[in-house]
């Protein structure tokens, strides 16, 4: 297989005869193949359309047969109901068959209740007419061979009209030798053959067809059209049935009859042949299109050699430019990766050095605190604690996989552990529940110092005189951000606290610097501070999910 990126010069040098043929010869071969393929596909599609036309006609025959069978079943069912009522009028077994006018009138009323029933009759055991709902009934009208058991269905005439005869035996006759009791007579109903034919004529089948009602032995009981031909398709057409016609048979209930619909193959193929011009037109248009395209391609093939040289030159130039550009991009990418790596290393190194410098400052403050009095030393201790909090954050940033983000829950755990060891003169218990929260360094620093101020103040002042107690720190998520709660069950705030911007200490001295610092740090982090009295003191920091810079702009 020839590669897609093979130069044109290499293609012309291939050993295959195909590449050495003139362009016009290749176009001619391709056009000839396209024409043959178009003709072949058109023939295949036309043959498939023929098969689909036959299948469609078979489906139509099946639907028409089902409709004819259902219609015949309903007519025979209503005739059977009238036979049952006529048998009731014939009286009980052992009584003579009626021949009075009153019974005739009642039979006439029954026949008139069903428009498709021509007449009702009562015949004796020999089949002779005894009583009829028609005044001009012929006594010797043709009757089918009557069966002593079950309903007999056949064709005949009643009142000069062609009918489908239904005969039901009247039980209660005398016993014949070698057989059961012979019927004492027959109840006969004549169903108008036009009730069947009119429905069959009204069906728009669309093909030459015939519809028949067949007896169980295959003998036609009724056929539309009469005779041996078929009707339908084009108006006025009448064709002759053949052995290869489409025939579908449907049973008519449990009567033993069946409805047979025959569609002539000739009418199906006639409709199919009317659509052949579509495939012929498609094939002609496709061949003409191929011829036009082939002529244009041959004309263009004459100039192909000249264009190939120019294209080959452009290909060589482009390939060289692509190689050079690729090498430049690879070098630039390597430089960018090295710069990013150097930046991350430098940032971690800066964080590590800042942490070390803060630890040095803490050591210097401890040395200086040893030389001053107890009251001033408290201020040094508070400053030392704040610097240690910042040192802890830089240490976590140094260890973090993302140099600019830390898990604030880890910072709270280490900070609270250090505070309970250093700022817990009453041995109060410190409880921490913190959900993981990844936060950037700009927001973590003020939040950590503010939390350190609140926890340290609670440990130092909430439980005077050594009273036991508990300080709880809770970091949890809420709908629009995080919530940080510092709660104690100590002595609580004095009742006369003027505002939340200045919190007196538990012993009465002012410590407004710590609370003012917490307020300023909360604002810097984009959080709001809330102070409550509920069995102690509750400080709640509500931290929205807004970047620090964005929050600062909105606050301004």
Automatic annotation (TrEMBL):
InterPro entries: HATPase_C_sf, HATPase_dom, His_kinase_dom, Sig_transdc_His_kin_sub2_dim/P. The keyword Membrane applies. Residues 349-547 form the Histidine kinase domain. It holds the Pfam family HisKA_2. Keywords: Coiled coil, Kinase, Membrane, Transferase, Transmembrane, Transmembrane helix. GO terms for molecular function: kinase activity. Gene3D superfamilies: Histidine kinase-like ATPase, C-terminal domain, PAS domain. SUPFAM superfamilies: ATPase domain of HSP90 chaperone/DNA topoisomerase II/histidine kinase. Residues 301-353 form a coiled coil. SMART domains: HATPase_c. The chain crosses the membrane at residues 21-47, 276-298. The keyword Hydrolase does not apply. This is Sensor histidine kinase. It comes from Azospirillum melinis.
